[in-house]
Amino acid sequence: MTQPFIRPDVRRFLDAMAVNPQPEFNDQLMAMIRQMPAGQMASADLPVGALETVRDLAMPGPAEPIALRLFDARRTREPGPVLVFFHGGGFVVGSIDTHAGLAAEMARQLDLPVISVEYRLAPEHRWPAAPDDAEAAARWIAENGASFEREFTSLVLCGDSAGGTLALVTSLALRDRPAALPVVLQVALYPKADSSRVYPSTAAFAEGFGLSRPNMAYYDSAYAADPQHWRHSPILAHQAGLPPTLVITAALDPLCDEGRAYAARAIEAGVQVSFKEMTGTIHGFATYRGALPSASSDLEEILKLARALMPGEQARPDATPSEDNEGQ
C-alpha cells in the first residue's frame, strides 16, 4: 500500500503525540476535564489575539440556559450577516474556550461578528440534546441582534468536526422551518456527515493520525445518536434548497470520505458547493495552528473560499472561488 503524503510539520506533531499518547476516553476522564479551569487546559491553537469586542451572554435553551460568546473585530458595525459557530469535540468535549482562537480568527478574516454556542455535551446530555441546542441558538440569534448591540440581516452557520455536523443539521432544520433570518451560507470543516455506514478512510486513518479508533468509539457510545437519522447523519436528508455550502476535509482524517460524499450529494441536489481537501494534514487542523504552522495558511485559504460564497461577494475580483474541486 502506498504511504500517504504527510506534511513535515504534521509528521512532527504526530510523532510527538506517539511519544505522549492521549489516554483512552471514558466517562471518568470526561468528568475530570469538565472540572478543569479553561486556563489549565493545554491548547495547540493560537490565542484569541486582538479584537474590539468579546462579550459573553446567555440565552434560554430547550433544557437549560445556553452560553454564547460574541467575537467581533469591530466595536460597532452596520447591519449585516452573523456567523453562528458550533465547536468540535465529538459531541463530548470542546467548548467556547477551546475554540476561542478559531472563532476570533474567523471574525477577523471574514470581518463578521461570530457567535460561538456552548451546546450541551454527552455523556451527560445524549443526542439529540446537541442539535436541539444548536437549532435553538440559531433561531434565537436570528431574533435577538439587539442583545449583541447589532442588527443581523442573515445567518452563516459554521462548525468544525462535530460542530460541522451541527451546522449541516441546523441548516436542514432551518430550510424546512425557516428562522427569522435566512441562512445564506453553511461551512463545515471536516464534519461527521454520515454515521450510517463505514467508509474506507475510517479504517485507513484509524490509528496514528490523531483521531484514534477507541476514542471515536467512545464518542459514539457516549453520544448515543441514531446513525440512520438525518439529525446525526445529515447526508441522509434531501439536500435540495440548501444555501451555498463549503465543505472542507483533511486527507489524513478518518472522516474525510464522509465529507467527500456529503459534498457530492449536495452537488447532485443542485446546491452551490465549494469543496476543498487539505492534503497531508489531519482532523482538527484548524485548532492546531499553534503546533502546525501550515494550518494557518489552510485556514486563510478556507476563509477566502467562504468569503467568495457570501452573497454579493462573487463579483469582487478578489473573491474568485478556487478552481480546486469546485462543483455546482
Helical content (DSSP H or I, runs of 4+)? 25-40%
Q: How big a fraction of the residues is strand?
A: 15-25%
Sketch the major β-sheet: 9 strands, mixed
Structural class: alpha/beta
Number of helices: 9
Outline, from the CA principal axes?
Answer: globular
Enumerate the strands of the largest sheet in spatial order, edge to edge or round the barrel: 1-2-4-3-5-6-7-8-9
Q: Can you give the mean pLDDT?
A: 93
Radius of gyration: 18 Å
- Total beta strand runs: 9
pLDDT < 50 runs, ≥5 residues: 314-328
The separation of the N and C termini measures 33 Å
Instruction: Give the ordered list of helices and strands.
Output: HHEEEHEHEHEHHEHEHE
Describe this structure in words.
The chain has 328 residues and is an alpha/beta fold. The chain is built from 9 helices and 9 strands. It has helices spanning 8-19, 27-35, 100-110, 129-143, 162-176, 200-204, 213-223, 256-268, 293-309, and strands at residues 53-59, 66-72, 80-86, 114-118, 152-160, 183-189, 245-250, 273-278, 326-327. A 9-stranded mixed β-sheet has the order 1-2-4-3-5-6-7-8-9, with helices on both faces. α5 (162-176) links the parallel β5 and β6 (183-189). Residues 314-328 have low confidence and may be disordered.
Give structural attributes:
9 helices; single chain; 328 residues; 33% helix; 9 strands; disordered C terminus; nine-stranded mixed sheet
Describe how the helices and strands are arranged.
Blueprint: H1 8-19, H2 27-35, E1 53-59, E2 66-72, E3 80-86, H3 100-110, E4 114-118, H4 129-143, E5 152-160, H5 162-176, E6 183-189, H6 200-204, H7 213-223, E7 245-250, H8 256-268, E8 273-278, H9 293-309, E9 326-327
